[in-house]
Amino acid sequence: MPKIVISEFMDDAAVAWLSERFTVHYDPALVEQPAALTSLLSDADALIVRNRTQVTEPLLAGAPFLRVVGRLGVGLDNLDLPACAARRVEVAPATGANARAVAEYVIASALLLLRGTYRATEQVAQGAWPRTALSGGREIAGKTLGVVGFGGIGQLSARLAHALGMNVLACDAVLPPDAACWQENGTTRATLDDILAQADVVTLHVPLTPQTRHLIDAARLGAMKPGAILINTARGGVVDETALAAALRAGRLGGAALDVFEDEPLAARSALAGAPNLLLTPHIAGLSHEANQRVSTMVAQRVAAVLENTTPSKAT
Hints:
Shape: globular
Low-confidence stretches: 311-316
Strand content: 5-15%
Number of strands: 12
Helix content: 25-40%
């Protein structure tokens, strides 16, 4: 019976479904135990990971029977894709399954940071009444959302923003000008420079590549509309964290929400520590109860399809 190793957390129902069909070793702590993971992979047919397990050439070399790697998410920068291809190991991500969770995170962060009134709980509970100080919050309707990277998550974020009365600009280095999504979403195609100059909220949805590393650097932060909000749910390296902290402290930006970081976990005394108007979350934008079920179910089905030699869903 084919053997599946799962090295990070997965929805219990999906694990149970796989266990009815295959030999499954499920231990979310394996990501912290490289020696144990290597040992288990010596006779494994499939590996299922999230974003922390590094699927490298040495790891693949120690897994000679591996046929498929399931990725509980969509980002693939923790997988050596050329090495997988060279060994004919199929990669099966959960394309689109967590898009709703990420898009809702984007809109919730924009609402919180534009309004700027939801951090007064302790003050009000202690008898203070900062009503005047907090009366200048901004409404989201009529504001402009700038979407950098117009794939599935970017498009869903745009639809939610339109429903709240926002105008939406977007750019994408891959999508051609005549792609149907531009017309379907009612979104205006723009350049990155135009987005930075005009958007009240900028949300990032690009992969981390040599071209996108520090895409949002000090110069581009300086080009953003004064008081604008920056949201990053893509990959940490897309934003220069030191430059962002400086922009927030200087009052150039209205705020930022970061769910991803160059180094995870974020160091205790990073440049971001103590920066004002900043929301930090632990790479969780794509994680909700519902999204975890969808992601886990999709990956379980795609991995099973490969192991059972049925026609799998497209996993690219």
